[in-house]
Amino acid sequence: MFFSLIGLIQFIKKQVFKDKILYSEYINLKVKHPKCQSCGMYLIDDDKFDKESNYCSNCYNTEGFIDKDISLSKFLEKIEEQLLLKGFKESEIKSRLKKVPNLMRWRKKFDWEKTTFQINQEK
Ligand SMILES: [Zn+2]
After folding, report:
1. N or C end of the chain, less CB within 10 A?
2. Which domain holds residue 10?
3. What kind and span of H or E run contains 84?
């Protein structure tokens, strides 16, 4: 009886946590972000930007992500190259790259089946 009660409490705790995460994901869908949630550029600077999206036209088109299977580290290299071409300062590039892993596309997802954090696989 005692142990089944503990089991029940654990189950409820897990459920509450799960609901919180689902809610925050739901909120994310509702929120319009000012920056592309893949590369971090301001969407207002993107003239081909689809207003319904949270991703810029360099990262996302009607078929999905343009570099669908790219790893985060490869993606960061790509952005760095682009910013260098555009003449950004080294310090500014660094601070931009630091923010990319926190964007929606790259944030760690919680896998409920394995109850473990699934990290973007490096290639
Ligand atoms: Zn982008």
Report:
1. N
2. 1-31
3. helix 72-85
